[in-house]
Amino acid sequence: MNASRPPSRPGVGPLAPRRLLPLACAALVGAAACASSSAPPPPDPGPTTFVREAGPPDPDPRVGLGAGLLDAEEAAWNLRLVSSTPPPRDFVGSWNSDLAFKGDYVIQGNFNGFLIWDIAEPSRPRLVAGHVCPGSQNDVSVYRDLLFVSVESPGNGRLDCGTAPIPEVVSPDRVRGVRIFDISDIRNPKLVANVQTCRGSHTHTVLEHPGDTENVYIYVSGTAPSRPAAELAGCSNARPEEDSGSVLSRIDVIRVPLASPDQAAVVSTPRILAGLVSPPRRSSMAPADVAEIAEAKARGLFVVNIELIGEEMILPKEATDQMLAQIVARRGGSGAPTAADSATLREALPAMITSMIGADALTSICHDVTVYPAIRRAAGACLGYGLLLDISDPVRPVRIDAAADSNFVAWHSATFSNDGTKVLFTDEWGGGTAPKCRADDPPEWGANAIFTIENDRLRFHSYYKIPAAQTPQENCVAHNGSLIPIPDRDVMVQGWYQGGISVFDWTDPANPVEIAYFDRGPVDAAKMETAGSWSAYWHNGLIVSSEIARGLDIFELVPSAYLSANEIEAAKSVRLDDFNPQGQPRFEWPATFALARAYLDQLERSNGLAADRIRAARVALDGAERASGGARRTALERLASELDAAAAGAADRRKAGLLAEVVRELAAAR
Q1: What are the domain boundaries of the chain?
Q2: How many CB atoms are closer than 10 A to CB 438?
Q3: CA distances, 643 to each of 202, 595, 605, 657 (Å)
Q4: Residues 501, 647: Cα–Cα separation, whole Å
Q5: In which element (H, E) is residue 617 found?
Q6: pTM to 2 decimals?
Q7: pLDDT tens across 623-634, in order?
């Protein structure tokens, strides 16, 4: 464990402006204002091959870490930081967003474009391309030689990837939707298409659908209001029953012909939220927020009640200054705003919120969709609801169940278990730019919710939230993560912004438990500055994290009582070419000696097989691995038969059977 270790890296400059605040603030004032060893094993490996520990460190070293941009103190448990690479000059001061993977390349979105890193040598990532092309959020996905990039902001997304802003309400130069790049030459991405959508693309999901080899599909989720019909025909903010072009309650589906990606186009707009009623809302606020609101009101700051989410919010001064200046100008005045101007603004704010974000946003916006083609299902995280979708027809996804929860403010993203029997949803309470992991914040708020899927119905079991309290200077809430391919377990790594990254086991949906973490102190000890892990994903043996302000972090898992060296080695045997976390692959493990040993470690940890049988199996496996040809095959066949017999009386018959099957496959290998 590394606790309070100050890294030695030079600074790279100022922080980015604030990312979007919660939906209401973004709608009011825009993003800018709210925003293995070669030596043979010993003959007898002993009773265990994994580390034993008493439990997580106590006290938790994440609490009280010193602040700094690139020199903050760090705490790690069962994780090793392999490298931390700051952003290149053109991207300093602009936020990093999501990640996609192509072999040894990591593609990192950034509000100013995207970065392509070569991580073949993970201790020294090498920048291959830094492509300047503004347009928040610039979330990225990849399929073969195509790169897809989300653009939602109306202020800086240009068709030509230029850097000049677009102040006009209607402009022929604006792109809001999905950009498509040809990356066959990875060092020189080439823009081949801009697919326009009414709301733009906050996030998107690439769906490689079984049976369709000629196209890929993109599910587009937009969270902003519609653009004017004068800019893109058919766009409307009206209710669906009033206007068939309404952007409410729907996602957009883009079909991309692989032979001619420049012909990509929107082919359907399924209303996956249609018919849902307003979900239950909580009636209280966190204690720290109540105190902050009271202080703000006492100071005369502008506070708005967001009935939609059951909370009050303090508007940033730069936003209210702009609004007050507009009020002064409308009355033909000049100079500082008067008390009457302030009163006018306070009176107008509720109606402004209703008109800009809509009274039914919780049933009209989908934030993210995760597809699992192997089971022909998707999970939609749609602000007010978590959805289960049938994607048998990729153009016409159908909602088959929906879950609501008054503890959730904004259903944000989703992850399936590898066998497809469970799904985890996240709640981005506070919009990602607020401190929501403070000591007195309820553990059910801003957390993960874990469901089983039973006969295509969602059944809630538990919440998971990082257990270490963060400071009021650290934006923290559940955000993006992925499964780690630990055999026969559901283990996930997840970014929590300035709460760091957390690795947890949710195999038992009622009892998730943290098994590893990494955290830094806040950027600034005196005030909140947005930073931290936007997303953390496992890819081909590494954990890669997109740090909003600090760059790119790469980690390795360290063996522990919760995760053995054999389990980690078995996870590394699962190799993916392209990987987009929102397009979830089914993990399949090749038969290896590490996989067999991983099952033995799990059986020992759970007392699922008699200890003497586990010891004998380890000795037999070691002997077989040292042998070759017919001798190896005979030894493994004998062991498989012995394990079949032992499984009949095992406490965990299923896993003992999995072990026997792997040994049998090893025996059959040539």
Answers
A1: 287-357, 593-668
A2: 17
A3: 51, 15, 18, 8
A4: 38
A5: helix 611-626
A6: 0.91
A7: 999 999 999 999
